[in-house]
Design a protein that fits this description.
The complex is a heterodimer of chains A (about 400) and B (about 130). Chain A has about 400 residues and is α/β, with parallel strands linked by helices. Chain A has a single domain, classed as Thiolase/Chalcone synthase (Peroxisomal Thiolase, Chain A, domain 1, 3-Layer(aba) Sandwich), CATH 3.40.47.10. Chain A has helices at about 25-40, 60-70, 85-95, 135, 145-160, 160-175, 190-195, 225-230, 260-270, 285-295, 305-310, 325-330, 340-350; strands at about 10-15, 50, 75, 105-110, 200, 205, 215-220, 235-245, 280, 365-375, 380-389. A 9-stranded mixed β-sheet of chain A has the order 3-2-4-7-1-8-11-10-9, sandwiched between helices. In chain A, helix 2 (about 60-70) links the parallel strand 2 (about 50) and strand 3 (about 75). In chain A, helix 6 packs across helix 10. The longest helix of chain A is centred in the first third of the chain and has 16 residues, at about 25-40. Chain B contains 1 helix and 8 strands. Classes of the chains: A alpha/beta (about 400), B mainly beta (about 130). The interface of A and B includes residues 128, 150, 200 and 201 of A.
């Protein structure tokens, strides 16, 4: 069975807030759900499948279907960190293809800013029962120093430079200037990125994504439902997911799970990287983007630095426009999870609803990619390929 | 070199890993080797992550290794160096680099084992620059 052509993304919504002092977590989930359903032209009563991940409060789908008053016949709480929502689209398409639901709602929300969470620089302890924790937590693994070790190794093996990484942030900032909701709207230069404070060598502050409150939602529907709606139709063409970990101590930080999730998605969609007009690439850090582009086959391994340099990712002038909303680096990384906004901007591009200054011409085929967990230890890569019908 | 020592949080041993931390208290680093497929793995497990066999045994490590990657965490109260070190036995482990000049650290340099005390628990295996 394939999911290619068996489901459509009919509704998208990105919460405009970036700091939600006055809202609860459950409320944010419900607000983004409402926004995505309105965007699709559907109502709450149409939803018969619900998907959420580790950001949802309480017992996840159980707590949220209760809060929102949903009556569903399919739930899925697959948790793979920030890639969850990219992966959920594939899972929703599978459930729809199998007849388990016809209108699947996927939500993400969080308020790390309002809660004062030290997102990137404080070691995270996932609990003593996690088998890795006693062998890692004492050494102070944080989000940023784990990705920093990937960048350090990439530089060692391939000669990648901080200036090349900086171009990724520069491109994101060029896009963010047109997004009124973006947290950071100032265009930055390579010099400003490499001159910003060092957080964990070799990653500077401007190599890191923003920390924001808010969230987003998606509505994935069956072909029958999609045909009844008046929105442009965005078809799910292919999906791939792949965990990558320390392989029993055979650690290799030079590549990500995208080397497996990418070919799975491209194979299912029967397209190649050369066919893709726009990419949303998970951008927790600049190095995340560089490694992912290599691993998905947009350039050869080790050539990512050259590929992203000189504005090659800037819409309108570069060869491969990416993250035209400003991405996690400038716009939004709600709940410290960037997968949802990656799918949302890809759908905007395919509908022709991106900002005119960054809209890719004839954008018929787009890719969204998520990296959940940590590139430096264990993560799940999720790749999604979508087509404008 | 920092004059202030970073305090290491204590690891939480469990029945599966107790021998590892008991050996650490004696200043010895243990690895798990599979009797069935012969592979050494890290972090230690009861069941081999390569072949799935339950026939795994503890083996002492020499304590020598090379730096695979590292990063100086500048945004910490006491800056510290997180690292992956590839042991001479072939496995790569997460650790800290301690008691050394931050600017002398390079990928590929030789390091040797040194245990550091934790907040009330068993000591943890860290590494410093230099050969055994």
């Amino acid at each position: 069975m394939t999911i290619s052509g068996r489901a459509y993304i009919a509704g998208i919504y990105e919460h405009p807030t970036r700091k939600a002092d006055d809202k609860s977590l459950a409320q944010l989930h419900a607000e983004v759900a409402k926004g995505a359903l309105e965007d699709a032209g559907l109502g709450k009563q149409d939803v018969d499948g619900y998907f959420c991940a580790g950001d949802a409060p309480g017992l996840g789908p159980l707590s949220m279907v209760d809060y929102m008053g949903l009556k569903v016949r399919h739930v899925d709480a697959t948790e793979t960190g920030g890639s969850s929502y990219v992966l959920h689209v594939g899972h929703a398409a599978e459930a729809i293809a199998a007849g388990k639901c016809s209108v699947a709602l996927i939500t993400l929300a969080g308020r790390p800013r309002a809660e004062g969470m030290a997102t990137g620089t404080a070691p995270r302890n996932y609990g003593a029962a996690a088998p890795d924790v006693q062998f890692e937590y004492p050494f102070g693994p944080t989000v940023v120093n784990m990705y920093a070790m990937c960048a350090m190794r990439h530089m060692y093996e391939y000669g990648t430079t901080s200036r090349q990484l900086a171009w990724i942030k520069v491109a994101a900032s060029h896009h963010a200037q047109h997004n009124p909701h973006a947290l950071l709207r100032d265009v930055v230069t390579v010099e400003e990125v490499v001159g910003s404070p060092m957080i964990a060598d070799p990653l500077h502050r401007l190599d890191c994504c923003v920390i924001t409150d808010g969230g987003g939602a998606l509505v994935v529907v069956s072909p029958d439902v999609a045909r009844r709606l008046s929105r442009p139709r965005v078809k799910v063409r292919g999906a791939g997911e792949a965990p990558k970990h320390q392989m029993g101590g055979k650690v290799d930080l030079t590549y990500s799970g995208a080397v497996w999730s990418g070919p799975a998605a491209f194979g299912e969609a029967a397209v190649t990287p050369a066919d893709i007009k726009y990419v949303s690439i998970y951008d927790s850090f600049t190095i995340t983007v560089l490694m992912t582009l290599e691993d998905l086959g947009f350039c050869a391994k080790g050539q990512g630095g050259k590929f992203v340099a000189d504005g090659n990712l800037i819409s309108g002038t570069g060869k491969l426009p990416f993250n035209t909303d400003g991405g996690g680096l400038c716009n939004n990384h709600p709940a410290n999870r960037g997968g949802m906004t990656k799918v949302i901007e890809a759908v905007r591009q395919l509908r022709g609803e991106a900002h005119p200054k960054v809209q890719v011409k004839n954008c018929g085929l787009a890719l969204a990619h998520g990296t959940g967990g940590s590139l430096g230890t264990r993560h799940v890569s999720a790749t999604l390929i979508m087509e404008r019908e | 070199m920092s004059s202030v020592e970073r305090m290491f949080p204590s690891p939480t041993p469990n029945p599966e890993t107790k021998p590892f931390w008991e050996a650490a208290a004696d200043g010895r680093l243990l690895l798990k080797r599979c009797r069935s497929c012969g592979e050494v793995h890290y972090y230690p497990r009861a069941l081999c992550p390569f072949c799935g066999s339950g026939e795994t045994e503890w083996r002492p490590a020499s304590g020598g290794g090379t730096i695979y990657s590292y990063s100086v965490m500048r945004r910490a109260e006491v800056p510290y160096v997180i690292a992956y070190v590839t042991l001479d036995e072939g496995v790569t482990m997460m650790t800290n680099l301690v008691d050394c000049d931050l600017d002398a650290i390079r990928i590929g340099r030789r390091v040797r084992l040194v245990f550091k005390p934790t907040e009330g628990g068993p000591p943890v295996p860290t590494f410093t620059l230099g050969d055994l």
